[in-house]
Amino acid sequence: MGISAVSARPARYGWPRLCRLLGSCATRRPHGPAPAAVRPGRALHTARPRRQEVPLTCERYGLRRLPFSRLSRADVAFFEGLMPGRARTDPEELRAFNVDWLKAARGCSELLLKPKTAAEVSRVLRYCHERNLAVSPQGGNTGLVGGSVPVFDEIILSTALMSEIISFDPVSGILVCQAGCVLEKLNEYLGERGFVMPLDLGAKGSCHIGGNVATNAGGLRLLRYGSLRGTVLGLEVVLADGTVLDCLASLRKDNTGYDLKQLFIGSEGTLGVITAVSILCPQKPKAVNLAFLGCQDFSRVQETFTTCRAMLGEILSAYEFMDEKCMELVVKHLGLSNPLRGSPFYVLIETSGSDSTHDEEKLNSFLEQATTSGLVTDGTVAALWSLRERITEALTHDGCVYKYDISLPVGKLYDLVTDMRARLGHSAKNVVGYGHVGDGNLHLNITAESYSHSLLDAIEPFVYEWTARYNGSISAEHGLGFKKKQFIQYSKPREAIFLMQRFKAMLDPKGILNPYKTLPSSP
Amino acid sequence: MGISAVSARPARYGWPRLCRLLGSCATRRPHGPAPAAVRPGRALHTARPRRQEVPLTCERYGLRRLPFSRLSRADVAFFEGLMPGRARTDPEELRAFNVDWLKAARGCSELLLKPKTAAEVSRVLRYCHERNLAVSPQGGNTGLVGGSVPVFDEIILSTALMSEIISFDPVSGILVCQAGCVLEKLNEYLGERGFVMPLDLGAKGSCHIGGNVATNAGGLRLLRYGSLRGTVLGLEVVLADGTVLDCLASLRKDNTGYDLKQLFIGSEGTLGVITAVSILCPQKPKAVNLAFLGCQDFSRVQETFTTCRAMLGEILSAYEFMDEKCMELVVKHLGLSNPLRGSPFYVLIETSGSDSTHDEEKLNSFLEQATTSGLVTDGTVAALWSLRERITEALTHDGCVYKYDISLPVGKLYDLVTDMRARLGHSAKNVVGYGHVGDGNLHLNITAESYSHSLLDAIEPFVYEWTARYNGSISAEHGLGFKKKQFIQYSKPREAIFLMQRFKAMLDPKGILNPYKTLPSSP
Q1: SS3 of A366, please?
Q2: What's the CA gap between B377 and B363, in Å, rounded?
Q3: Most C-beta atoms within 10 A of its C-beta, which of A494, A508, B89, B462?
């Protein structure tokens, strides 16, 4: 059986409700590449002003600590001997590593380890396994579901000093690097060589590639380059008992046995610690074009997508939509101007290709077709990513925000917004929808003047039940982490959850790796 | 511990040698889309002339049967009750299902089951699990490594009658279908709707999509659309004990827990029986162009690849090479004519895009650049796939063929051919190399007038050791099946093999699913 992470329920609220409390009203992070000023950076960790202390997760939820060993002086001495100067115990230094990016979860770890090699990670885990010490692996600590910080006093195992590029082959485009490489740095490194990373995220300035892989990050380039399931070619992983699993192949094709690395992609540090990554990188596109369009209804948004995909074909790299409420908020709160006449829906299209003349011709043909046929009522070709990117920011100015990141069949994508709006009526201030049409990924956001239990009860579990009814996913790209682990059953059948728990029990029998995360507590 | 499949070694030859015997001289199947006349089809199964009987695998290898139950009359009665008319015991009918496509492996199963639903597969496996009856799952039976036929008397579980298309969404391009759908039929179905399957194989006329996924088939479209790891979105799998695992999501993004389906992709039927597949299908390209070029050395083949990828970018869909020996054999044995002056290397480039004018412009610019810079000495734009496709056929006319399907870092791709040629000298008739430069996939072929032990000993294990030295894969796309399972250690570390064995033991504790396959016998 898997871990039984949280057996004590808090006195006042049931576990699901508390999960929901944490899951809402705290997500104030722009999706997509954020403007430089609000982009998460390491400076946030080291130079944050002391504001109100984030409540300890364990206290907020009234959780019971699992029976792991307590860190002893001898333990600290062991780690100091193993990595002199890189076993940190200064509470002030640990503060930033104990709190998540959203300031919604806080652990009370007393030890931060910064290994430089897989061999060091192996020795750390072997020791922790023998001593029954819990470990919270941490990359750039930019996750949105509380998965990257301790819940209690787990030792924080940071990949911050594992930032070496091991190799890059410009013929194949295959990059091999340590897990702690920052995504943006890798992208810069590749950019100088005519390549790009196959993924891009708002958190790129801080997030580590190991963390990206451990959480199976999606992001902005998924429509074009596919998921990490296809682009990650190999991993080096250290298992809970210290075994180093070297599956760091840098081959596009390898059919020798089960593809073990896949189990670690998206396992959120609960099955092993990723120490190095081999990844296939596409060429840097030579030409990038944008178009911003207005549509009269969501069926036209969909039809425009199919038309555009057919006409732009291989150069289509993004197809994002937002509803008029989103536009209103961006205009109202951020002072951006809507370049189009008012439309119920707006669409942002990006092309990336190898020939600017060809790409512009394709885009113009499509725009002519879309306008002539009435799919699109208005449009402009301009650099308008900011309208789309800053929706999240605008939402945070609108009050308390209840945020959901949902996958649905494309045809049902906007129905959830419509149904939710009808359901909530005047109890919500705004119910807005935007997202990646091409990926079937909806960002549903509900705002209110202030937090209210009754509004939350009207939203949940309705939103999860609705999503489950249409075979959607309650977490498209953010993972389950600490906040959503109790809701997995809305997207996965009982048999699958049971099998996941068996894998966990097999690979980490003592449950020391990132406890209280990803899999639901036992009933 | 995993299965201990073959514990008895044959008297005369060691196991590795016998594996090699089976692995060589039998592969006479064209790679890539074969000409219609030699394309594998179902007719091969039903109307094959009675030639020399293929030796029983168990006798040929002196194998010891694992202690599974023997099929009883009561068992047959049970299955006949479960699926009237679809539990077949006629030896004549079973003959084709007992022999593999290469006529190199033969089992002696006495029962063929043809379920129509996952529920039937579940009832079959639950019964077999309880009764300790071994099962050999079978798709189109087109595999090249002996993985799709019984080794002893395993019950053959065919997906032949599970051929329904469940749904297709033309907005997202997501197809959901039963495992027994024939690849070519799916492609035709999609073609009528403006889409294509993301994979293409020479065996497309017979192979089942379930078998493709179970073996993680690569094929001709991998360079463009990536592997099944990225395009397969969901699976329905029946586990050894009959549990139905419904992970048939049709979503591009879903980060709720571990991605269990990945473990079954490429597991060759040893961990579960795939009963349905959800797969992301790309649009059908509107324009396809070809170019056939001559290069003076392999470094120019590589440099031409990087130039071509940079200039053709998103429309490049194939980059295949062949050496002059391949060309000589195609000319000599098949009477095809070489449209170019003699060159040491030839390259076939394919583009697939959405605008023929744009694509031709790009191709012409590239060709001008490649010729001007001396990368390419000669070239023609013509439909010349047959020269590349018929190499395998030409080789079979050259004598006994020793065939290897190897992945290597692109820079080392041809060195193996050069080294092998130097090593073998006059003991081989021809040593030729061709393959997919873009995928790092080399087809190394060695011909001789007749089979010889001493030649085989000169090739193996040298070829595997050489591949391992450069971190290559000894099976790029064919899998391990029965023939190559004992060589896995050349491509995977001990820790990984051990972990695979633990997964096998966990999911199939009695080892009833496709025994004697994929994982090595215990030492």
Answers
A1: helix
A2: 16
A3: A508
Residue of A16, A3, A130, A6 lying closest to A453 (CA atoms):
A16
- The answer to whether residues A142 and A101 touch, using CB atoms and an 8 Å cutoff, is yes
With 0-12 CB in 10 A as exposed, 13-18 as middle and 19+ as buried, what is A499?
Answer: buried
Task: Give the distance from residue B265's alpha carbon to the nearest chain A alpha carbon, in angstroms.
Answer: 8
Q: What domains appear along chain B, each with residue ranges and CATH number? A: 15-160+502-507 (3.30.43.10), 165-280 (3.30.465.10), 287-391 (3.30.70.2190), 398-478 (3.30.70.2740)
Q: State percent of chain B over pLDDT 90.
A: 74
Closest Cα of chain A to B519: distance in Å? 7
Res A240 pLDDT > 80: yes
Please tell me the distance in Å from B494's CA to the nearest CA on chain A: 9
Cβ-nearest to B473 among A171, A249, A495: A249
Alpha carbon distance B387, B249 (integer Å): 41
User: Is there a contact between B245 and A499 if contact means CB atoms under 8 Å apart?
Assistant: yes
Nearest to A253 among B259, B285, B473 (CB): B473
From A446's Cα to the closest Cα of chain B, the distance in A is 22
ipTM: 0.88
Q: Which chain B residues are within 8 Å of A260, Cβ to Cβ?
A: 496, 499-500
Query: What contacts A52, CB < 8 A, 6 or more positions away?
Result: none
* Amino acid code (one letter) for B140: G
Could you read off the pLDDT of A315-346 as tens digits, one per residue? Answer: 999 899 999 999 999 999 999 999 998 899 99
Chain B residues whose CB is inside 8 A of the A405 CB are: none
* Pairwise CA distance, residues A184 & A172, whole Å: 21
Contact (CB, 8 A) for A159 and A210: yes
A251 and B472 in contact by Cβ < 8 A?
A: yes
Cβ(B507)–Cβ(B269) below 8 Å: no
Measure the CA–CA gap between B23 and B403, rounded to whole angstroms: 8
Q: What angle do CA B189, A311, A292 make, to 5 degrees?
A: 130
